[in-house]
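Chapter review: from sequence to fold.
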Amino acid sequence: MASRTISTRPQYPHQKQPLHPHPRSSVGPATTFRTYHSHDHPPPPGPFTPAETALLSAAYIHVPAHGFTAEALARGARDAGLLDISPSVLPGGESGGAFRLICWHLYTQRTALEGKVGGLTRDAGSPITNVADKVEALAWERLKGNAEAGVVGRWQEALAVMAHPSYAPTSVKELAQLADEILYLAGDSSVDPSWYSKRASLSAIYAAAELFQTTDQSPDFRETRAFLRRRLSEAARMGGAVRSVGEWIGFNAGAAVNVLRSKGVRI
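The token string follows.
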């Protein structure tokens, strides 16, 4: 992603040093996600080596049919003209390769959002200028990305991999980066403690909406969009009364769990 010329991010003392690329490719630290946007501290390059990029981009098209699996990786290797043994060189063995493929989806979908900002419109076709509406629109664009990539039917499998203790920290970090990206692109310029609470809230809401999407049978995932809109609206109403990040997460998680259980999701 290109460096921005203006940063609206607050640079709190403990955030003055951005994350730097790890010297080698790995499932954990190699996912070189930045802590905030800044012209002085441009974002690091993507977290994938050229060899991984060739393999994962080719394997990605097989995910709808075969999931985030060794089979998709093997087929991708053949498509890319690589040796069948190529997926085995990914960090972490077979499960590590599956997680790297999941990371490819998360990273490419997140970084694609910047190119969609200029085209955000309301249902009636008018441009969106309000920050809150942009947040909703960008979160919805990200959810649409799951559908367009054909991975919605495979996402509960992906969540099971992401929940593994070895991969959970990186998965949570990527979710935080997504919330940060959405708020930045929406034009949020808060420089007070709400900087944290907004990101915590949006992370919780997006995660719940993404899980909801895996059970949504409505045309064009309309119920998922309505779910997202309700959660964001409820969070906005609660904003003035919430005193901590924990309360934000607790409120949003509690509301989401009740709806998800009604949809048959075991949580």
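Two observations follow directly from the output. The mean pLDDT is 77. The CA atoms of residues 5 and 206 lie 28 Å apart.
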